[in-house]
From TrEMBL:
<dbReference type="GO" id="GO:0016020">
    <property type="term" value="C:membrane"/>
</dbReference>
<dbReference type="GO" id="GO:0050479">
    <property type="term" value="F:glyceryl-ether monooxygenase activity"/>
</dbReference>
<dbReference type="GO" id="GO:0006643">
    <property type="term" value="P:membrane lipid metabolic process"/>
</dbReference>
<dbReference type="InterPro" id="IPR006694">
    <property type="entry name" value="Fatty_acid_hydroxylase"/>
</dbReference>
<protein>
    <submittedName>
        <fullName>Sterol desaturase family protein</fullName>
    </submittedName>
</protein>
<dbReference type="InterPro" id="IPR051689">
    <property type="entry name" value="Sterol_desaturase/TMEM195"/>
</dbReference>
<keyword id="KW-0443">Lipid metabolism</keyword>
<feature type="transmembrane region" description="Helical">
    <location>
        <begin position="46"/>
        <end position="66"/>
    </location>
</feature>
<dbReference type="Pfam" id="PF04116">
    <property type="entry name" value="FA_hydroxylase"/>
</dbReference>
<keyword id="KW-1133">Transmembrane helix</keyword>
<dbReference type="GO" id="GO:0005506">
    <property type="term" value="F:iron ion binding"/>
</dbReference>
<keyword id="KW-0560">Oxidoreductase</keyword>
<dbReference type="GO" id="GO:0008610">
    <property type="term" value="P:lipid biosynthetic process"/>
</dbReference>
<keyword id="KW-0812">Transmembrane</keyword>
<dbReference type="GO" id="GO:0012505">
    <property type="term" value="C:endomembrane system"/>
</dbReference>
<keyword id="KW-0472">Membrane</keyword>
<feature type="transmembrane region" description="Helical">
    <location>
        <begin position="6"/>
        <end position="25"/>
    </location>
</feature>
């Protein structure tokens, strides 16, 4: 059950409210909206809805098979649903972390980080190739959660993350900031500042980052976007540019070790330069 579809009217309403807030209460320190950037984000969001119909069917088939072979069966009680949301959030943390640490997965996720603006439309800038959740949510099915529970819990996770894509909300009450993912934490995640790279992967809860040492508090002003920003607003190019770059690097790789690294190592990985042959030492004078 994909609840995000039902949340679309609320997304649109909140997006309009944020645009009006920038219109009538501008903040020079915040980037706000830009027409072309927002249009690209909305286009990517619409495309992801269509693409996820196909990925959703594959996920349903896989999770149903796994749910059918596991001896576990979590009931659809209030606590069962609460556990489903918690389990999905835990495995989402590792999915999200893998998307930053494995270049092939980053090629899908980079879409979401490609905007140099940070507003509610950025939340809608989603990948069209998001098949990885099929694998990363598979353990949740083996733990005894039905495919319907996984779909619903994953939707809750994505819906929650919509509101944290904003600069209009500053830090919240400390106990909330300690446990929950907030706009402040997620602004860090979208930063290209050196100290902000690959930090704050949590979906609903930020405690996973605290536990697994990937947490970074918001300090200096965040520079949104990529370390090497793209210069296109074309949705198709935004969707596939990193796959194209991987193909280029693989074609020009020196060997299979480098080819493997270009695909499965981190996005910034490159082979160590070969050490140049040292000159032969001069013979000692007689």
């Amino acid at each position: 059950m994909d609840l995000t579809t039902y949340a679309i009217p609320a997304f649109v309403l909140l997006l309009v409210v944020e645009i009006l807030a920038y219109r009538f209460a501008p903040d020079e320190e915040q980037r706000g909206y830009a027409a072309k950037d927002t249009a690209t984000s909305l286009s990517m969001g619409i495309g992801s809805i269509a693409a996820n119909l196909g990925w959703g069917i594959l996920a349903l088939l896989l999770w149903d098979v796994l749910f059918g072979v596991t001896p576990l069966d979590v009931p659809g009680t209030w606590w069962g649903w609460a556990l489903a949301v918690l389990a999905v959030d835990f495995f989402y943390y590792w999915e999200h972390r893998a998307m930053h640490e494995i270049r092939l997965l980053w090629a899908s996720h980079v879409v979401h980080h490609s905007s140099r603006h940070y507003n509610l439309s950025t939340a809608l800038r989603q990948s069209w190739t998001g098949a990885h959740h099929l694998v990363f949510m598979a353990p949740v099915a083996l733990l005894g959660f039905s495919p319907a529970m996984i779909f619903a819990a994953y939707s809750v996770n994505l819906i929650y993350q919509f509101w944290i894509h904003t600069e209009r909300v500053h830090r919240l009450w400390k106990p909330i900031e300690y446990v929950w993912n907030t706009p402040s934490h997620h602004r860090v995640h979208h930063g290209s500042n050196k100290q902000y790279l690959d930090r704050n992967y949590g979906g609903i809860l930020i405690v996973w980052d605290r536990l697994f040492r990937s947490f970074e508090p918001e300090g200096e002003k965040v520079d949104y976007g990529l370390t090497k920003n793209i210069t296109t607003y074309n949705p198709l190019r935004v969707a596939v540019h990193e796959y194209w770059a991987i193909g280029h690097d693989v074609r020009h790789a020196a060997g299979w070790r480098e080819r493997f690294g270009r695909v499965f190592r981190g996005p910034g990985w490159s082979p160590a330069p070969r050490a140049e042959a040292l000159p032969e030492p001069a013979e000692a004078a007689a």
